[in-house]
Amino acid sequence: MAIRxxxxxxxxxxxxxxxxxxxxxAYADDLxxxxxxxxxxxxxxxxxxxxxxIHVMGITFRVYNDEEGxxxxxxxxxxxxxxxxxxxxxxxxxxxxxxxxALNMFIDDLYNAQNxxxxxxxxxxxxxxxxxxxxxCKGFSPPLGVWAHICGSDLVRDNQGVVYVLEDNLRVPSxxxxxxxxxxxxxxxxxxxxxxxxxxxxxxxPSDLYDMLAAMSPRDIAEPEIVVLTPGxxxxxxxxxxxxxxxxxxxxVEGNDLVxxxxxxVYMRTINGLSRVDVVYRRIDDWFLDPExxxxxxxxxxxxxxxxxxxxxxxxxxxxxxGVADDKVVYAFVPDIIKYYLNEEPxxxxxxxxxxxxxxxxxxxxxxxxxxxxxxxxxxxxxGMLIGPHSNAKEHEKFRKLIQEDPRNYVAQPMLIxxxxxxxxxxxxxxxxxxxxxxxxxxxxxxxxxxxLTRVAMIRGSTVVNSSQGxxxxxTWIVDMEGS
Amino acid sequence: xxxxxxxxxxxMGRYLERAENTARLINVNSNLLLDLPRSISLGWEPIVDIxxxxxxxxxxHKEAVERxxxxxxxxxxxxxxxxxxxxxxxxxxxxxxxxxxPRESWERINELYSYAKENCQKxxxxxxxxxxxxxxxxxxxxITGILAGTMTHDEGxxxxxxxxxxxxxxxxxxIIDVRSASLLQDTETSQSAFENIQWMSVLKSLTAYQMYRxxxxxxxxxxxxxxxxxxxxRFPRSLLHALRQVEHxxxxxxxxxEIIMQIRxxxxxxxxxxxxxxxxxxLHEFIDxxxxxxxxxxxxxxxxxxxHT
Lengths: 484, 309
Description:
The structure holds two protein chains of two kinds.
Chain A: E1 18-20, E2 23-24, H1 29-36, H2 40-57, E3 61-65, E4 69-73, E5 77-85, H3 86-111, H4 115-118, H5 124-129, E6 150-157, E7 163-169, H6 176-189, H7 191-196, H8 205-215, E8 226-229, H9 238-248, E9 251-253, E10 258-260, E11 266-270, E12 273-276, E13 279-282, H10 286-289, H11 305-310, E14 315-317, H12 328-342, E15 354-355, H13 359-367, E16 372-376, E17 386-387, H14 393-405, E18 410-414, E19 420-425, E20 428-437, E21 439-442, E22 446-448, E23 453-457, E24 471-479
Chain B: H1 3-35, H2 45-50, H3 54-60, H4 66-74, H5 83-96, H6 103-119, H7 126-150, H8 155-181, H9 193-205, H10 209-215, H11 222-231, H12 239-250, H13 257-273, H14 280-306
Helix pairs in contact in B: 1-5, 1-7, 1-8, 1-9, 5-6, 6-7, 8-9, 8-12, 8-14, 12-13, 13-14
């Protein structure tokens, strides 16, 4: 037998499938025994089946290279799914809805009355420093007050089993196509498990997305024209753009395919001439969206589309300016934001975040810097960060100084030990760290994907799950134990 | 259908056809040179001329010797008309319409490009050249077959065929123009065995030899060859056939009236000219008119479907 759960090390980690070595969690029991009974040859066969399914379906992400143009790479996929008990998932779902609802109210408030600032909950100077606050959007409110129609929130679990929100992606979150395709692959590889367990389906997403987008149409017509706006074939997420367009039966367009007329309406160029567009699901960043208003050099965008949007002639998802709510300082305020707008306690906790601008929190950070992660507020992509446990005394001292000089610019978090799940390494299983990105759709109703995209760090000990840095993905099964 | 997508399909069809035609042209020329005595030095320059790359060629090469011309027409990425450039462009066009064309056809186009890129050195040696070029031609035929057999014959497919047939029409007229210029000066001169071979090569460049033979059982003569290549409606690489194919495709597309009128103008010119009876100088003028006509048709297609405002 290839997989011996008794040899699988759980130690002081929280594992998603096992309580301890050799002891599967109740909802993973069937899966673990199924896997235990597989021979090496079967495992190799199933892995090959998954690889070939990925190849046949053309599931790729794109890497650009000068020599060859662009290359499509398959994203590493692990055949062992990540399971979540439906009972737990229900609460997470409610928590996500609560969070996104509050974030949308927050964005709408910031661009209009700014009550949260007047009431002293959110500091005005933080807004002034925000790169993603677009002055062009001030005084505007999209229909229903919804800005971030599609949100991808990253969830992590620590070694105590607590689920935290690590960050919210409110601009152009990606990955949902992998969630959908991973499920297709798994159905081909482990059809037996789908008969045996009550695994909730995920394939509603494209229809839900379509319904939400269609409901945004400024024209009240039976079949509004919905398009997916992509930066083009060289974008790493192009596969997803094409995939979603195809699944929704929407047109996949590039900036040059669209034109804004003198009537401030958006049209696409077709072989029949110009044809009116009602809803644009845009997958390009604010900065490139409209050269008339933002980056004048942008060739990806559509000149005049902001005009059309403000005139109410076209709906944009997500609304420009939504990104104001996904920077690191705002993140620290989300629990307060939830309390302020909804008068509710947050259901899903943030990773505890110390705002160095507050004296008490700053003192705590300065004292415990060796065990903390310090992040600058206005940087992204991991720049200017300190990972306390991986740094020396000199670096700790350097950051103490930096924080004291500009406390407003820093937040700090305790170092989390992410949960793990068994992952195939050759024909054996080893624990690997992972996270989860559910997608939340906000229109008239709020809908959450069933589970989401599980990203896994394929390298031992690593917690980096990004596709560009050795990350892979798993199918995510929400298992209904009561229904089975 | 989006204009950009239609345009890309049209060009994908054109570039694939161009790569295939260029491969055929080189193959036939290689064969022809083996048959001709050294005194008749046709050489490789006509190949450069057929594709109108004289200026570009001589800006980087001194002499139109075999080695230079082969490299220029097969592997040179600076030459936009080389096989490798055509295939690369076809592949980029295919990539942007991957969601529209059958996956298999995309994979074959991708493979064809990789094959050409990795093996283009094989075109240099006469021994391996034929195999290399045949592979290009056959792969392209396979792609055409996959598209015909698995792609919905919708608007997109029609644009692809329009591109292919316009390219074909273009190539047929070019080959006739350049080849006939280096052949007989007029119809009355007596024929030699070598002239016969050369007219055969014109037919072969367009894979028309066998079909011509079935159709015209007499000895190969200039007027018959011209008539066959320009006016034989049933031969898929004749000018008239290509024009009628474009017209046929357009009929399923919106707003085609003006373009079809333009095609009819060119068609009438073609039918009325009696090209087989034209002496060389007149033939050249006539071919020029045909090329202009083809350009006008393509411009109209561009305006109507791709670049309207």
